[in-house]
Design goal:
Blueprint: H1 2-13, H2 20-23, H3 30-33, E1 35-44, H4 47-51, E2 59-65, E3 71-79, E4 82-92, E5 98-101, E6 106-114, E7 119-128, E8 131-140, H5 147-159, E9 167-169
Antiparallel strand pairs: 1-2, 1-8, 1-9, 2-3, 3-4, 4-5, 5-6, 6-7, 7-8
Length: 183
């Protein structure tokens, strides 16, 4: 589950700087991206996640933009019997909208679609012990995912070669992480 948390965080890091060449829009206002997000869906080729996909729940992330452009990202990830909390710092790669972290493996994340305020779809890659895994994640400001947004996420996942059995709409976490923002 620690891998899940780190990967989820990387994906969200990209939200703070979205380049015009990537999304066809001007750079996002950081104040709109910073704050609390729900990770409401994911598609992955990580077999350990796929084996547990029926147990996965919606995670929460909080993003703070630091003065130097780095991102301080806090995660609250529900796991069986507990709420795992992680904090990571992500740094810009030099590519607009892309961030990396080298703690516990090398990770990159890139926004592939967003409206800048209510949702973002992020593609993340993680290399650990010589193995590369990929994930596409849907971040939303609310726990609810509209039918239109669910269709968009599934379409983007299939465009990245994720099959339907690798696409997971995450249920709400309930009270598993009731004090998530104390992390």
């Amino acid at each position: 589950m620690r891998t899940v948390g780190l990967s989820l965080g990387l994906a969200l890091l990209c939200l703070l700087r979205v380049g015009a060449e990537d999304l066809g829009a001007a750079e996002l206002d950081m104040s709109k991206i910073a704050g609390k997000w729900h990770i409401t869906a994911m598609a992955t080729d990580n077999e350990s996640y796929l084996q547990k996909k029926d147990q996965l729940k919606m995670a929460m992330t909080s993003i703070e933009v630091l003065g130097n452009g780095d991102l301080n990202v806090s995660f609250a990830i529900p796991t069986p019997g507990q709420c795992m909390r992680l904090v990571s710092i992500y740094k810009p790669t030099g590519v607009l909208g892309q961030y990396y972290s080298s703690d516990r493996g090398y990770k990159t994340a890139q926004v592939v679609d967003t409206d800048g305020t209510t949702y973002a779809v992020v593609f993340a890659t993680r290399v650990k012990d010589g193995k590369t895994v990929h994930a596409l994640r849907l971040y939303t400001k609310t726990r609810e995912v509209s039918p239109r947004l669910a269709v968009l996420f599934r379409k983007l996942a299939r465009q990245r070669s994720f099959t339907n059995d690798r696409i997971i709409m995450l249920p709400a976490q309930g009270e598993r992480c009731p004090h998530a923002w104390g992390c």
